[in-house]
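Need Programmed cell death protein 4's 3D structure for a figure. Predict it.
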Amino acid sequence: MAAEVEQWNSAAVQADGVVVQQVVEEDDGVYDDEELNEGEVNGNWTPQEKALHEARLKAKAKRRLRKSSSRDSARESLSESGPGEPGADPHSPKGKAPQNHDRKSRTGKGRGLPKKGGAGGKGVWGAAGLVYEMEEPDARDPNYDESAQGDTVYETVVPELEEGQLEKTVNPIVQEYFEHGDTREVEMLLKELNLGPHKYEFSSLAVCLSLEGKASHRELTSRLLSDLVGKVLSESDVARAFDKMLKDLPDLILDTPEAPQMLGQFIARAIADHALPMNFLNRYKGKVDCDHARAALDRASVLLTMKREMVRLDNVWGVGGGQRPVRHLIKEMNLLLKEYLISGELSEAEHCLRDLEVPHFHHELVYEVIVMVLESTGDSAVQLMVKLLQEFWKSGLITLDQMNRGFQRVYDELPEINLDVPHAQTIMETFVELCFQESVITKQLRDACPARGRKRFVSEGDGGRIKS
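Structure prediction for Programmed cell death protein 4:
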C-alpha cells in the first residue's frame, strides 16, 4: 500500500511539473477569473486538479507582472522620444502632436468642466446675475489721493500738440472764424487744445492768414487778439508772435508785398487794444537792421502818434462788409457807377463792388443802375448799364435773387419815379426788353414790368375816340 501511494505521488509531481510548464507557456487569454471561481466552488478536488489550480494562479500572477512591466517600459520610451518620433504612441496624451485649439488640461488636473462656469470669456462681463463688489483703492496707484479719504481721482490729460500738427489744427479754426466772427467759439476750441510752449504761434498764424485775405479778415483778427488776451493768450505771447513776424517779413513780402505796412497797422491796433505792452516799440529803437521791419515799426509809430487822443484804433482797417451804414454803402455804389459811366472799365467796377463785401446788398446796385438809366438823357448810358449787368450776371457776382429784387423795387416805385421823370415808363420798357434780349433777366421778370397807363380824353367833337 505504501509503495502504491509513493508511486502515485511521484506521478502527481511529474504531472504537476508538466501542468505548470504547460500553464506558464499558454497565452494570456486562455483562462480567466470566471473559470477559476467555478473551480473554487467545487470542493472535491483531486490532487492533480489541486496542483493544476495552483499552477493557474502562478501563471496569472506572472501574466500581471509581465503586463505591468511592459506598460512601464512603454511610458519610459515615450518620455525619452519626442511626440513626433515614430516610437511615440498616438493614443497616448503625451504622444499626440501639440494642437493650438486643444482645450484639454495639460497637467491632467480638473474635471473637464468649462472655465469660470461658462462666464467671463472674451467680451463678456461675467455670469448672469453676478454682482461685483467695490474694489478698495490701491495706495500704489499714481492717481491715489490720501486727502480724498481713499477716493481715486481721475483727470483727463490732453496730449500736447506737436509743432508739425499745430498749423494743421489752427488754420481751419481761423478760416472758420473768418466766416462766423464769433471769438467765444475760438476761445472754447483753443481751451480744448494743449498748445504747450507753442501757444504764441497761434497769433502769428492768424495774422499771416489775414494778410493774404481781405480787410474785413484783418479787422476780425485784430478783434480776436484783443478778446483772447487775458483768457487764452497773454501780452507776452502776442509780443513774441509779433517779434517772430518782424523777423519773417522778408518771406512774407513774397506773398504779400504790402506786409510791412499791414504789420505796422496790426502792431498799432494791438497796442491801442492793450493786447501788446506799451513799451513794445521802445524795445526796438536803434536795434533794427532789416529795412522791412523798420518800415513796419515806423508805420505803427506814426499811427499811434496820429491817434493819441483815441482809446482804440477802430478804423485802422476801415469798416468792413455789412458793418458799414446803409447810407455809406449806397454812396459807394453811386460813386462806383458814376466812375464806370466815365471810364467804361468793367474790371475796375467789379473790383470795387467786391471790395465792398456786401453780397446780400447787391440788389441796391441793380436798383441804382436802373434809376440812373431812367434819369439819363442819351442812349450810351443804357448800353453801358446793360453791359455792366450782363458782366456781373455772367460772373456770378449778382445772383438771380438779387437781380429780381432790384428790378422789383423799381417796378413798385415806378409811379413815384414818373412824377420826376415823365418818360420813365417808356425808358423802362425799352431797358427791360433789352436786358431780356441779352439774357440778363428772365421772361417772368420781363412780363412783371407794369404796362404804360392810358387815359381817355373825350371832347365834344371827337366822337368818343381815345387821344394818344
